[in-house]
Amino acid sequence: MPIELTAFRWVPPFAQGYVRDLRIRWALEEAGLPYEVVLVDGPTLATERYRQWQPFGQVPAYRDDAVEMFESGAIVLHIAERSEALAPRDAAGRARVTTWVIAALNSIEPHAQNLVNLDTFHAGEAWIEARRPQAQAMIDGRLASLSAWLGDKAYLEDGFTAGDLIMTTVLRELVDCGTLGRFPKLAAYRERCEARPAFGRAMEGQMRTFRENGPA
Q1: Has residue 89 got a pLDDT over 90?
Q2: Domain boundaries, given as residue ranges, for the chain
Q3: For domain 3-85+198-213, which architecture applies?
Q4: Does the pLDDT of residue 124 top 90, yes or no?
């Protein structure tokens, strides 16, 4: 069967370009694997049939001729097992890729999301004045450590991997708030990864869907 992944038919402008099916599209584009996108909406997510595929009613969900799965990090790691474009073939190299995927999702993303959520959904609320500096300090500390590791390297390891793919999708959420700009090495790293042709194709695929299905 062809590879299938689910994606939203449309989302509000602030979320466009950030929905996590982008990670899967990018991985598949890097790997050169053909795929089909199954578009879903709110009512679809609530159905028992979809919940059997994605228990939490989210996107993306994924299936191919061997597996049916969900969670973007797990899906990207599965795709990486099929392609040297995303992970080396030796066990030690694959372990490092897995480590960086988990680091992006566990050590960086929760703190990035905390800051972004404060700015997006709670801007102007009185309690933000006390809470936001703490959130900013936490993500700044994690980014400082990441920047120190990256140093003058082009990528987190010897070449681009699934770890860089996931890390980039996390870091790009910190552009609009100005946080990433305070870490020039990480800002340049993000731009370098996003300049890859496969990222451009993945982004255009997601945005085309939103253009075609937006409100009249």
Answers
A1: yes
A2: 3-85+198-213, 91-196
A3: 3-Layer(aba) Sandwich (3.40)
A4: no
